[in-house]
C-alpha cells in the first residue's frame, strides 16, 4: 500500500513538473484563454451546467425506472429545453410542448394515411417539415436559436420526423410509438422545469431589475453617439451600428423577464416602449446629423445649448442606474427642453425682424433660419428622451390597473419563408431518395438525422454556417461517445455508476453551451450524446450498434451542410438587393395617398433590415459594400420618417399654395422613385433640391409667424431628404445592383 501511495505521489509530482515546463519553459507562453470556459467558468455558467446535468440524469433515471424503450430521448429533451435563465427555459418549454403536440398529431395522420407508399411517404415527411419551417419563418421575432416561437415549429418538425420515421417500420404500432415519444418529451420538460425552479431565488425582483439594467445598457450605448453628434460629428449616429443591434437584442429579452415575473402589470410593455423610444431618439439624431451639413447653421446659441445637453446626457446612465428617483432627471430635462424652445422662438423672432425691416440681410436671415431648424430638431431629441425615461420609470414602478400595451412587432418575409421551406424539403427528400436507391440498412437513421438538422436550422438566415458548427460538435461527440461506449460504459451494472460516468461529459457540454462561441457545437454535443450512449435496461451500446449510429449521424451532418451550400445557398448580395428594393418600394408607397403607417413601424422595419445586414458574415472584399448598405438602410429610414412628417404638414393645410405645390411636386417624383430606370434617382434628387430652394426663398419673404413656422418644419424635412439622397447616391441610384461599380 505504501509503495502504491508513493508511486501515485511520484506520478503527481512528475505531472506537475511536465505541466509547469509546458506552460513556462521552452518557447512562447501558451494562450489558454480559449479554454477558460472549461477550467475557469463563471458561477452562472457552472450553475447552468450543473443543474442541467442533474436534470438530464434524473430524467434518464426515471425513464430507465419506468422501463421505457428509448430512455435517451428524455435526457435529450432536457438539453433541448434548458436555458441560462428561468424565463427562457419556461418559454422554450411551453413552445416545445406545443410543437410536440402538433408534430405528434401530424405524424399519426401521415402514417395512417399512406403506410405502403414509400416515395410518397418520404415526400410528405419532407413537405411537412418544410411547412413547419415556412410557418416558423413568419412568426414574430428574429430568426435565431433564441426565438422560441420559431422553436415551437422546430420542435414540431423534430417530433414529426422521429415519430413518422420510426413508424415507417411498424405502421400498425404508430399510436404506441407516438405516445412513447410524447412521454419522453413530456418527462424531460417536466423534470427540467422542476429542477430549474429550485435554483431560482427572488425571481420576480431580479427580472424587474434586469429590465431596468437593459434600458440603462441601451441608453449607455446611445449616449456616446449623441454626444459626438452634438459636438459636430454629423455621422456619429450612422457610424454607431451596435446601438441598434443592442436595442433589438434587449427588446427580444423582455418577454423572458415577463415570464419570470409571473403576475405583472405591463412592466414588459413599458420596457419595450422605452427601448423603442431610444430607437426613435437615434432616428432623430440622424435628422440632426443631416441638418448639420447646412453651412452657417451652428450659431453661438445652438453651440451653447448643445454643450449643455451633451453634459446632461453623459450623466444620465449613472443617475438612472443608481436606483434613484427619476424626478430630478426629468426636471433637468424639461429645463433643457424649455431652453431649446425659447432659443428657437428667439431665432424665429429675430428672423422675422430681419425679414420685415429693410434693408434685408439675406445671409443673416438664412443663418437664423438654419439655426432655428437645428434647435427644433434638438428639442425633438429631448422630447423622445423624455418619453423613454417616463416609460422606463413606468417599468420600474408600474401603476395599479395599468392597461398600457406595446406588443412585439412582426415583419414577415414571405420570400424567405418559401426559400427556407423549399430548402428543407428538398434536403430531406434527397436523403430519402438516397435511402431508397441504396437500400442502406441504416438509411432510415440517416434520414432521421437529416430531418432533425433541417427542422432545427432551416429557419436561420445562414444555415450553412450553423450546420458547419454543428458538424464540429458532432465530430467531438462521436469521439467522446466512442470512448464511453467502447471502454467506460462496459463497466457499470447499476444506474448510479452509469450516472457518475455520464456526469463529467454532460457537465463539459453544459459549460460549452454557456460559452457563446461554442453554442452551436455544444448543442450538437448535448443532443447527440444521449443518442450515441443509448442507455438501456437490458443491454448496452456495443461497438456494432455504436458504429451503425455514429456513421449515419456524421454523414447526415455532412450531407446537410453540403445541401445548404449547394441548393439555394445564402446569397448576401441577393439579400442586400432585396432590402434595397423593399426600401425603394416603401418610399414610393409613403409618397402616395394611402393610409400612413405609424412611425414605430417605419423605425422597426428600418432597424430590422439594419440588424440583418449588420449581422451578415462576409469576407473582407464585401465588407466595404456591406457598410455602405448599412448606411443606406439608415438613410432610407430617415427619408421615410421625413416623408411621414411632410404628409402630416400637407394634411394640416397651413402652407401657402406655392409652397404646397413645390412640396407636392417632390412627393410626386418620389411616387415614381425606383432608382433603376430612366434616371428616376436624378429627377427625384433634383426635385428635392428645387423644393428646398423654392421654400427657402418663400420662407424669407413670409411675414405670417404661424405660416413661417410651418414652412420651417417642411423645410427641415426637405433638407434632410435632399442631404440623404445626395450623400447616399450610390445606394439610391440602383442602376448598379450590388454597388460593385460604385465602390470598386
Automatic annotation (TrEMBL):
Entry's transmembrane regions: 45-66, 95-113, 119-139, 182-201, 417-437, 443-460, 469-490, 510-533, 545-564
Entry superkingdom: Bacteria
Keywords, comma-separated and alphabetical: Membrane, Transmembrane, Transmembrane helix
InterPro entries: PHBA_efflux_AaeB/fusaric-R
Pfam families on file: FUSC
Protein name: FUSC family protein
Amino acid at each position: 500500500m505504501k509503495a502504491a501511495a508513493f508511486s501515485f505521489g511520484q506520478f503527481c509530482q512528475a505531472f506537475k513538473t511536465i505541466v509547469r515546463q509546458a506552460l513556462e519553459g521552452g518557447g512562447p507562453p501558451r494562450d489558454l484563454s480559449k479554454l477558460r470556459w472549461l477550467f475557469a467558468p463563471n458561477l452562472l455558467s457552472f450553475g447552468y451546467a450543473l443543474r442541467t446535468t442533474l436534470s438530464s440524469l434524473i430524467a434518464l433515471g426515471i425513464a430507465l425506472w419506468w422501463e421505457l424503450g428509448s430512455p435517451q430521448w428524455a435526457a435529450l429533451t432536457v438539453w433541448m429545453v434548458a436555458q441560462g435563465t428561468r424565463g427562457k427555459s419556461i418559454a422554450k418549454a411551453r413552445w416545445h410542448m406545443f410543437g410536440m403536440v402538433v408534430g405528434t398529431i401530424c405524424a399519426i395522420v401521415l402514417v395512417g394515411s399512406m403506410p405502403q407508399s414509400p416515395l410518397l411517404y418520404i415526400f410528405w415527411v419532407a413537405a411537412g417539415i418544410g411547412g413547419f419551417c415556412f410557418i416558423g419563418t413568419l412568426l414574430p421575432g428574429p430568426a435565431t436559436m433564441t426565438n422560441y416561437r420559431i422553436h415551437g415549429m422546430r420542435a414540431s418538425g423534430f417530433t414529426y420526423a422521429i415519430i413518422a420515421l420510426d413508424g415507417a417500420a411498424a405502421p400498425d404500432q404508430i399510436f404506441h410509438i407516438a405516445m412513447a415519444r410524447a412521454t419522453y418529451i413530456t418527462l424531460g420538460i417536466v423534470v427540467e422545469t422542476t429542477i430549474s425552479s429550485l435554483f431560482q431565488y427572488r425571481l420576480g425582483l431580479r427580472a424587474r431589475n434586469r429590465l431596468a439594467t437593459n434600458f440603462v445598457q441601451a441608453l449607455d450605448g446611445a449616449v456616446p453617439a449623441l454626444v459626438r453628434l452634438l459636438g459636430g460629428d454629423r455621422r456619429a449616429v450612422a457610424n454607431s451600428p451596435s446601438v441598434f443591434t443592442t436595442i433589438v437584442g434587449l427588446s427580444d429579452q423582455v418577454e423572458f423577464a415577463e415570464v419570470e415575473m409571473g403576475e405583472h402589470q405591463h412592466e414588459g410593455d413599458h420596457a419595450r416602449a422605452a427601448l423603442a423610444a431610444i430607437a426613435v431618439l437615434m432616428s432623430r439624431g440622424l435628422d440632426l446629423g443631416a441638418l448639420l451639413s447646412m453651412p452657417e447653421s451652428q450659431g453661438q446659441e445652438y453651440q451653447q445649448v448643445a454643450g449643455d445637453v451633451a453634459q446632461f446626457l453623459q450623466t444620465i446612465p449613472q443617475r438612472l442606474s443608481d436606483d434613484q428617483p427619476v424626478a430630478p432627471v426629468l426636471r433637468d430635462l424639461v429645463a433643457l427642453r424649455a431652453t431649446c424652445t425659447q432659443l428657437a422662438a428667439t431665432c424665429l423672432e429675430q428672423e422675422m425682424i430681419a425679414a420685415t425691416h429693410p434693408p434685408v440681410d439675406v445671409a443673416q436671415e438664412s443663418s437664423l433660419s438654419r439655426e432655428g431648424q437645428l434647435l427644433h430638431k434638438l428639442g425633438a431629441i429631448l422630447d423622445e428622451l423624455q418619453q423613454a425615461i417616463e416609460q422606463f420609470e413606468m417599468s420600474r414602478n408600474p401603476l395599479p390597473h395599468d392597461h398600457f400595451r406595446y406588443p412585439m412587432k412582426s415583419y414577415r418575409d414571405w420570400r424567405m419563408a418559401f426559400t427556407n421551406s423549399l430548402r428543407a424539403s428538398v434536403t430531406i427528400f434527397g436523403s430519402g431518395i438516397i435511402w431508397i436507391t441504396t437500400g442502406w440498412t441504416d438509411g432510415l437513421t440517416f434520414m432521421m438525422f437529416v430531418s432533425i438538422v433541417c427542422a432545427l436550422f432551416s429557419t436561420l438566415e445562414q444555415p450553412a454556417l450553423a450546420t458547419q458548427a454543428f458538424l464540429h460538435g458532432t465530430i467531438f461527440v462521436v469521439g467522446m461517445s466512442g470512448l464511453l461506449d467502447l471502454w467506460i460504459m462496459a463497466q457499470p451494472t447499476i444506474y448510479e455508476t452509469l450516472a457518475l460516468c455520464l456526469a463529467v461529459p454532460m457537465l463539459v457540454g453544459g459549460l460549452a453551451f454557456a460559452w457563446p462561441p461554442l453554442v452551436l457545437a455544444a448543442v450538437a454535443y448535448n443532443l447527440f450524446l444521449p443518442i450515441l450512449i443509448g442507455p438501456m435496461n437490458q443491454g448496452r451500446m456495443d461497438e456494432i450498434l455504436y458504429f451503425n449510429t455514429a456513421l449515419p449521424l456524421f454523414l447526415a451532418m455532412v450531407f446537410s451542410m453540403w445541401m445548404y451550400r449547394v441548393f439555394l445557398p445564402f446569397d448576401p448580395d441577393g439579400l442586400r438587393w432585396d432590402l434595397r428594393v423593399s426600401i425603394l418600394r416603401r418610399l414610393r408607397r409613403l409618397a402616395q395617398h394611402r393610409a400612413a403607417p405609424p412611425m414605430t413601424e417605419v423605425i422597426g422595419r428600418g432597424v430590422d433590415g439594419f440588424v440583418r445586414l449588420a449581422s451578415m458574415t462576409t469576407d473582407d472584399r464585401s465588407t466595404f459594400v456591406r457598410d455602405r448598405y448599412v448606411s443606406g438602410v439608415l438613410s432610407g429610414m430617415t427619408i421615410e420618417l421625413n416623408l411621414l412628417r411632410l404628409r402630416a404638414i400637407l394634411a394640416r393645410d397651413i402652407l401657402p399654395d406655392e409652397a404646397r405645390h413645390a412640396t407636392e411636386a417632390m412627393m410626386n417624383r418620389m411616387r415614381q422613385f425606383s432608382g433603376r430606370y430612366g434616371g428616376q434617382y436624378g429627377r427625384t434628387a433634383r426635385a428635392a433640391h428645387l423644393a428646398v430652394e423654392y421654400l427657402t426663398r418663400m420662407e424669407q419673404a413670409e411675414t405670417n409667424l404661424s405660416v413661417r413656422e410651418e414652412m420651417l418644419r417642411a423645410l427641415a424635412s426637405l433638407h434632410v431628404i435632399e442631404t440623404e439622397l445626395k450623400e447616399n447616391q450610390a445606394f439610391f441610384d440602383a442602376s448598379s445592383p450590388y454597388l460593385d461599380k460604385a465602390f470598386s
